[in-house]
Amino acid sequence: MSAKDKMSDSSVTQLFEESELTKVRGEAETVSSLNDNSPDLQLVKNQKNSTNKNGIALALGGGVARGWAHIGVLRALDEANIPISMIAGTSIGAVVGCYLAGKHDELKEFARSITRRNILRYVDFTLGKSGFIAGNRLAERLDEELGDIRIEDLGKRFVAVATEIDTGHEVWLEHGLLAPAIRASYALPGVFQPATHMGKHLVDGALVNPVPVSACRAFEQKTVMAVNLDCEVFARSSVVRSTSIDTNQKDERLESVPSSWLPFNFGNNSSTKKQKLGITGVMIEAFNIIQDRIIRSRLAGDPPSVTVRPKLSNIGLTDFHMADESIKLGYKQTKYELAALKDNGFMEAIS
User: Fold this and answer.
1) Cβ(231)–Cβ(210) under 8 Å?
2) I need a surface site. Which of 33, 110, 113, 225 has the fewest CB within 10 A?
3) How far apart are CA 144 and CA 73, in angstroms?
4) Which of 56-65, 110-119, 283-292, 306-315 is predicted with the least confidence, judged by mean pLDDT?
């Protein structure tokens, strides 16, 4: 079977054929003659970055606003002097992956600066297109912070997971500018417009791989820590039998909600969101259910070495203003997991 045929059978859309990668590996001495932006050069740089397998590989999951918990996870790992060998991130997990670019403090400051009111400055609504939010303002902020930083120059391997909307393929963004790769990974369908990359229309990677342990395993990382932000441990996988549906029963949660067409419930508190569903609530709950089922399936096939699951049940997917609490919960849970692993030879295993 040719490399091209292998690619078409794969569930992951690779950006280069295997023959191209083999050629670069076999002729690495010719790299100096390549243009700085050559795809071949980027592949060689990525290959070099992936050789470091000491430490742990992080699979940072999607979870929208709950993703600020990843910042606390990284802080706990830093305090424990645990080296990170690579990061694979989906959606908000890809955003936090800019830690590898030395932007940890800037990211934490940005997360804590968001309030119920000023979040609107990053939201540019658009009508009649493929998403409620164009995403240009957030993209500009990413560009401002990350500039011309390229993935292959991070020093450690980084993979941003996205979904090709036309085919459903899982796409691993491993080279090129960091900011556009992050933008593609968090483009939640129906909310953000899809990102265009190399002729592909990309949306949120959580549709296919919410916690990308498989990406870490693909690069032969021996110890993988998964950070799973899905806090609903029980009930979502249950099967409930019902003999009838009462069509006369009224439910206030299903009644109209002011501005419920908005993709985010700005200014609403958690109790209001639990009482009223509206269009937004239905979309969010549907996304929760789908993501929970996908996570269970993917992690059963690619189990991590360690799982960190912060207790984020009080934080909604759109509660971006609760960054401080999310960070603290991520930090607390990671410290707890590390303490439990300390006596089981964990530190020796990652050295």
Assistant:
1) no
2) 33
3) 25
4) 283-292
